[in-house]
Design brief:
By secondary structure, the protein is of the alpha+beta class. It has 5 helices and 5 strands; from the N terminus they run αββαβααββα.
């Protein structure tokens, strides 16, 4: 199994329905389990199963995956220490690769050179994304403040 998979898993309509049902059935456990959760996993075709203990954090992650898939959304799981190509990073940010390269060249996102290629740490990319979101929110707050000062109908 590839340790770095950023290709989204797009659920089929059957997967979406199963994820919805599973999420509903597991939801009561999520609220009541601060430590660990025991889950019984059974193969549908053979009926063989096993009970496994999951840390609460893993169980909550599983619930989030099921919820997203139950809504028909694609899901990606990525280790936080992952090193991304510029194309992967651009896709995660929802920007073009040339735009991302400009941001790297302006030193707005840390990166490493591996051979002749740039690699961006996932954590650094998420820090950049959060900084952009915070800047955006500040700018919007300022625009709202200005609109209120000018009595443009915003309360």
């Amino acid at each position: 199994m590839n340790t770095l998979t950023i290709e989204p898993v797009l659920p089929s309509s059957e997967d979406t329905q199963i994820a919805k049902e599973s999420s509903r059935k597991l939801a009561p456990l999520a609220a009541a389990s601060p430590g660990t959760v025991e889950v019984r996993v059974t193969a549908a075709d053979t009926g063989k199963g096993q009970t496994i203990r999951l840390p609460a954090s893993v169980f909550l992650l599983l619930m989030r995956i099921l919820t997203e898939m139950g809504q028909g959304n694609a899901v990606t799981l990525m280790p936080i220490h992952a090193q991304l190509t510029t194309q992967q990073a651009a896709e995660l940010l929802g920007v073009s690769r040339p735009f991302l390269i400009k941001e790297l060249e302006k030193k707005r996102i840390p990166f490493q050179i591996v051979g002749t290629h740039r690699r961006i740490a996932y954590r650094d990319l998420m820090d950049y994304k959060e900084t952009c979101r915070a800047n955006h929110n500040r700018a919007m707050d300022e625009l709202v403040r200005q609109a209120q000062d000018l009595k443009m109908g915003y309360q």
